[in-house]
Amino acid sequence: MRLICTVCLVNRSFANAPVTLKRKHVKSTLALCKHPKSGEFCFILFSAQNKNGTKYDIKNNILKVLNRFVSEGKVTIQLKKPEHDLCIQAETIQIKSFLLLLKKVLENKVSAQEFMISSMSVTAINANDVAPKKLVVMKSSDYASKGLPRSLEILHMSGLKRCSLNRSVLLLVRLRTLDISDNLIEFLPEEINKLSNLQELNLNSNEFGKSAPRKWDWMGGNLSKSLKCLKLCNNHMKYVPNQIVKLYSLVSLSLDNNELTVLPSGIGNLRSLRILTAGSNQLSSLPGSVKKWRLEELDLSHNNFHDAEQNNPAAIFPKPLPVCTLKEYAAKRVLFARLSYNCETLPLTVIKWLDLAKYCVCGKACFDQFIKHPHMLSLSSVSKNISVSAAGIFYVPMECYLCSIKCFSSANYNRGRQPIVR
């Protein structure tokens, strides 16, 4: 049997050396066959650099088979002599078939019909035969006829004017970059948050502005840890969903050319965020949680901000907040610990309540008990590079939600109007 794959060959005998010698994954052919002379089963590993192949005995020579990630098309075969680890990546179905045949060989249960005796026809793989890692779909007819190889890591389906995402994309477990810009898509299926390797998602120039709040439940799941870049420009969006605060690993967020009037209260809790562009919207203030930002680049050009720094009258402290309910204390703890939740673990009414949480400048959530107070934010305190449309704008208004008197006094939010206590 011949397995078309990529292999990283690791020599364990150099494990204790100052520099561990490891090779990158290279396009290879791994053959499981019988040696034409001895008749014993063996592996033969071919590559473009090794066209003659390297033979590895199988009988009493396999130390371990590490198949924990076989569902992702990954397996490692450890050999005794030589002390080599074959780190293999291939199509999931093919690699499972290969391992099944190997198991029968080790148990001496393989039949002649299942196995090709001669290994003379086994040759190195051609580069054109390797399963592709990148695919650019230029038209809808190609999308339907070619299908989507499971090996894809980069997929571009821009400008197809599709109204929905084909569910076959949800099977691409290796996908790192997905570009479905310039289509007519209004929402994504929730199952997309199971793509644990997805790092970049381009949704520019679609119709996500028509999406109902519940249709944003795909934000979260595995994407909370994997997604680094999200692009939602030119989508006629009037709001950014509160679920975006679940994308804890976001580094870059693009929201340009929409109809946004506010940003989510908890957007400042995206601790990894370094680039935010939200130009050409209708923003007139920012949520108080953005004081926690430490951005490299901030673009708020062509919005409705006005640089009108307020006076500082004598402090007007609000009354102490009432004691929170147990429900609110529990909800605060869930959000503070960043525990994942969905309709399988919580009722929909509770999920909606959690998603609508307000966030204090300290980063903690608040629900029914909070102090609401306006403030002015110095843009230079949250970003190194700032882009604004009007010259001289250095301060923008903030609407702050404060979870306690302590946060109110320590942050000195005593500027302007009488605070609103709920």
Brief descriptors of the model:
single chain, 422 residues, alpha/beta, PH-domain like, Leucine-rich repeat, LRR (right-handed beta-alpha superhelix), nine-stranded parallel beta sheet, seven-stranded antiparallel beta sheet, elongated, LRR_domain-containing, LRR_dom_sf, repeat, leucine-rich repeat, nucleus
Give a topology summary.
Layout lengths: L1 E10 L14 E9 L6 E7 L6 E4 L4 E5 L7 E6 L4 E6 L2 H15 L27 E3 L3 H7 L7 E3 L20 E3 L20 E3 L20 H4 L2 E3 L20 E3 L20 E3 L8 E2 L7 E5 L26 H11 L11 H8 L2 E2 L5 E2 L4 E8 L4 E5 L7 E8 L2 H6 L9 E2 L1
Parallel strand pairs: 8-9, 9-10, 10-11, 11-12, 12-13, 13-14, 14-16, 15-21, 16-20
Antiparallel strand pairs: 1-2, 1-7, 2-3, 3-4, 5-6, 6-7, 17-18, 19-21, 19-22
